[in-house]
């Protein structure tokens, strides 16, 4: 009898799963098919061909996929190779607390049609729950003055390192990374900065005092460790994160994912200072053969304004972790991170780490998330090409997630000297 097992059946999305098929004919060729339906009914699917060993078993921890959405030994390939049935669709978890994503894995014989759906009955199947929050994590909506966000507090006694989590131009309030960070021991504030409730969808400035209020709110919370906080940020969020690190003494560790070392398009304002954006060339936007828009080249790196418009990163208190996807089609993060680190070196600073990933795109998410190579942003563009190749992008997500946590723990958790007894 053919059996398909997956362990654990219920886990956080950043945890690996052990998938195994038994009871097959020796050397039988089969197809593993994974599918997921998001909260609004969008379908994501993947498939891979495998051959059973001499005793009729396939262990995805050791067996190599022969073809399909990936090749080679990739125990979690069925998850990170999920792709949308509707091309311009990003997999986003909105309700992180009350429901998981459910991933169905089915085992078929080798004659499975190439189409997404089939009437053929699988040889075996299993359904997994993939959660974005651990048991005991508390979710607290934040409507403090003008602040808009959600605070996630880990379970357990004591206080926890505090982190502000920010996304980019897409706006709204994305909670899934903050809830995962809380599941790993960080008091995490998912902070909205545009396009949410009464926050304007297209603000005419970035008011850094808003973000200062968020930092102070987090530090005042009784479950937050202090004395400083960390930032995890991507794209436009990373632009703001860098500006926060420079101007706000509360920020002592900053993670910048595929962001610039200058201001993109609207000025930053802080206590009477106005920081102007770098000029850009709309005519340098590229549109590829599929009609996807690429903003990669809109900033001229050879002009005299390049060095003049760089943010004074050397003034920041805490260290930086730069994370770069080298196949990013939206932001030239490799060049921008190099400029930022060279600027730090010129001022005698070595308080930075650069992780640069060949083949990774713009949307670097927690581990095992599917590659989002194209999606739209309301009021900006209906089809933005984010770049990335499936296998190296997946490797970048898995590695960088571990490094983000190590970096934040190192710089936000006080070192307690060990006692010596004589």
UniProtKB/TrEMBL annotation:
InterPro entries: AB_hydrolase_fold (IPR029058), Acyl-CoA_thioEstase_long-chain (IPR016662), BAAT_C (IPR014940), Thio_Ohase/aa_AcTrfase (IPR006862), Thio_Ohase/BAAT_N (IPR042490). Residues 14-144 form the Acyl-CoA thioester hydrolase/bile acid-CoA amino acid N-acetyltransferase domain. The keyword Lipid metabolism applies. The active site is at residues 235, 328, 362. GO terms for cellular component: peroxisome. The keyword Lipid metabolism applies. SUPFAM superfamilies: alpha/beta-Hydrolases. Keywords: Fatty acid metabolism, Lipid metabolism. One of its GO terms (biological process) is fatty acid metabolic process. Pfam families: BAAT_C (PF08840), Bile_Hydr_Trans (PF04775). GO terms for molecular function: fatty acyl-CoA hydrolase activity. Residues 206-413 form the BAAT/Acyl-CoA thioester hydrolase C-terminal domain. Belongs to the C/M/P thioester hydrolase family. This is Bile acid-CoA:amino acid N-acyltransferase.
